Amino acid sequence: MGNKLLVRAYNVGVGDCIYVRIPDGDQNFHILIDCGTISSINLLKSAIKHIEEYMLPDAEEPGKKRLDLVVVTHRHRDHIKGFDPTFFGNIQIKNIWLSAAMDKQHPQAAKTLSLHDSATRAMRDIEARGLALSPTLQLLVSMYSINNTDAMKALRQDLPEANGIEPVYVHADKPQNELSLPLNSASIRVLAPEKDIDGYYLGEEADEMLRGFAGHRTYFTRRSVSIVDAYPENISAGDFRLLRSRLLSNAFAFAETDSSIQNNTSVVLLIEWRNRRLLFTGDAEWEGEYKDGKHNGSWNVMWTVRPQHLCNPVDFLKIGHHGSCNATPWAKGRSLDYEVNQILNEILPLPEGNKKPSAKAIASTQRTKVYKPIPAAELLEELGKRVSNTRTYYQELSALDLDFEEKQPFEDYWEYEQVDCLMKPQPWRTDLENMLTGVDYVDVEIEPGD
């Protein structure tokens, strides 16, 4: 085991908490990629405690363990909720990498930051009103909660100060010597986001979008509550309710746009170790095609700007966005020359003839009533054809004598699991592996290449 690279995905519900151990000479290099969930914070606390006690070596500082690198892909709570300084009190962190989109001073993200600040104000004011919202809208609002501010403060200030370091805001254009790490047998390359965040991920429509929302901004301020809670004299009650509904719809649409951009500014890492390639994608999304000067998905940008890093197969894929169909470059029913299918066929090619796939993958996921379509069953079935670490979950769960239509995780959203997909091999996923084994993490080991 000591000669193998280890990827460990902790079962934290819908969220990412991924530990990576890279053998490097006579010692190991230890990485934590994200620490978040939309579920209980206790899941993250337990995961960090387990990493501290069982996975990390002693640090130079007495009584502490050493964690060489923390990578935070983006600011959504299912990726940052667990960065509570008290969880890391016994851990010495040597390096912290944050997405350049988190840098308040980044000159090429001014519009992206403005959009996020506006969406945050709107969602928090909606939350303060106590409106009755659907579970999906409740989740969207929660992505902008005050707890996110606390986590960002911990990442930008508290944890760096406690460890005597400065956070590094990373992007694909950052020179490798500015990302230097004490690694001899491996390299860690940032493939995304691009430095020009506004240009690639917002595009020319940014100004129009921000101007459009500015007209509604006064509605989402605390001092306007008395205005919106009482009908104005110059408008009928029905028209007022319609206006208010439209304003709320615009705010949610604006927040959804911002949420997508946060996903698309995820840090994407390519780890190369002893002739092996491992791709960690955060929640990077894909679009139909790349358009210069327009809003683009991260996969499309990488494929256009840095194709040399995606034109060879990978040995491991962290399946993006908890198995969402918009985060792995594959479109069912599209021809093989369709752009996003080209990407998947390059990084995880279908085996030819009687050959078996050798790559591995993990989906850090859990099907919930809120995130019903995630993971996308047909996508996992497709990935199951391309990787070697698979399970036929229907068969193995059936052996546990579960009544699929009455027991979790299938109650109320059975249609999304799709029995025919569960009857076919899928990559390992943290939720169902936990049901089968009772273990709170999923391990993938990567052997050195030839």
Structural class by SSE content:
alpha/beta
Strand order of the largest sheet: 8-7-5-3-2-1-16
CATH architecture: 4-Layer Sandwich
Q: Percent of residues in beta strands? A: 15-25%
Q: What helical percentage do the residues reach?
A: 25-40%
CATH topology: Metallo-beta-lactamase, Chain A
Keywords for this entry:
450 residues; alpha/beta; Metallo-beta-lactamase, Chain A; seven-stranded mixed beta sheet; 16 helices; 16 strands; 35% helix
Describe the structure.
- The chain is α/β, with parallel strands linked by helices and 450 residues long.
- It has one domain: Metallo-beta-lactamase, Chain A.
- The chain contains 16 helices and 16 strands.
- It has helices at residues 41-54, 77-80, 110-129, 135-142, 146-163, 197-202, 206-214, 225-228, 237-264, 298-305, 339-347, 377-384, 393-398, 414-417, 419-422, 430-437, and strands at residues 5-10, 18-24, 27-33, 65-67, 69-72, 91-93, 96-99, 168-170, 186-192, 268-273, 276-280, 316-318, 360-363, 390-391, 426-429, 441-446.
- The strands form three sheets. The chain has a seven-stranded mixed beta sheet with strand order 8-7-5-3-2-1-16. The chain has a seven-stranded mixed beta sheet with strand order 9-10-11-12-13-15-14.
- Strand 10 (268-273) and strand 11 form a beta hairpin.
- Helix 3 (110-129) packs across helix 9 (237-264).
- The radius of gyration is 22 Å and the shape is globular.
- The chain starts with a strand and ends with a strand.
- The model is unreliable at 218-232 (pLDDT under 50).
